[in-house]
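About this split. The held-out portion is used to measure sequence recovery: a designer receives only the structure tokens and must propose an amino acid at every position. Recovery is the fraction of positions where the proposal matches the reference. Here is one held-out target exactly as it appears in the evaluation file.
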């Protein structure tokens, strides 16, 4: 009887330890990866803004490419440079700073902007914003082809990241000077919305009465 009791006690102890391990495993939150909908939505917006930008500059002559509506306004070439440089700079900041910071789900409460607000507000050209010095055009690219290549390479890197990442983009945060704290996924959406904003600016230049006919 004593041997049987000891055996039962050992079984109970093993079961208790096993259940305890299961409870601890269940209590540990899994990494917050992107949902299928989030991933598809980001890629859809990135693809759409890429296509619209490249379409807006297709077939322009050198005169049209370099035309400035006024001394204090950018040409299509300068806007395109800004788009390309901003793409690589913002994505580099996401990888090097936002995602390098510790994951902190508690910071979600500090985010005031929604994904929809970013996609709607950023492209809105009724509010003018000065670009930071680092993102202003300085004739970095010798030719239009160089500008397009820089943009295409940067956009491919952004889209490849979105397609493949299993990182918890919703738990890493970085401050935006106007929109406040945003999570890494929202920063990705900002890249697309920023391209859309400046594609509209290109269309404004092309609509100028003095824009060269050819």
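Reference sequence for scoring:
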């Amino acid at each position: 009887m004593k041997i049987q009791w000891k055996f039962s006690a050992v079984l109970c102890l093993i079961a208790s330890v096993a259940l305890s391990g299961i409870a601890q495993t269940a209590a540990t939150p899994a990494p917050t990866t992107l949902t299928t909908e989030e991933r598809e939505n980001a890629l859809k917006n990135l693809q759409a803004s890429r296509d619209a930008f490249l379409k807006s500059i297709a077939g322009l002559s050198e005169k049209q490419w370099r035309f400035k509506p006024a001394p204090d306004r950018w040409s299509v070439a300068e806007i395109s440079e800004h788009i390309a440089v901003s793409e690589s700079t913002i994505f580099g900041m996401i990888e090097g700073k936002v995602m390098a910071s510790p994951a902190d789900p508690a910071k979600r409460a500090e985010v005031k902007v929604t994904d929809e607000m970013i996609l709607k507000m950023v492209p809105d050209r009724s509010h003018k914003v000065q670009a930071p010095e680092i993102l202003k055009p300085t004739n970095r690219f010798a030719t239009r082809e160089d500008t397009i290549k820089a943009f295409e390479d940067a956009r491919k890197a952004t889209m490849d990241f979105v397609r493949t990442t299993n990182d918890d983009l919703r738990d890493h945060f970085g401050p935006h000077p106007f929109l406040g704290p945003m999570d890494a996924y929202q920063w990705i959406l900002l890249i697309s919305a920023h391209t859309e904003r400046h594609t509209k600016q290109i269309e404004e230049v092309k609509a100028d009465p003095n824009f060269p006919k050819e």
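Annotator remark: Residues 1-30 have pLDDT under 50 and may be disordered.
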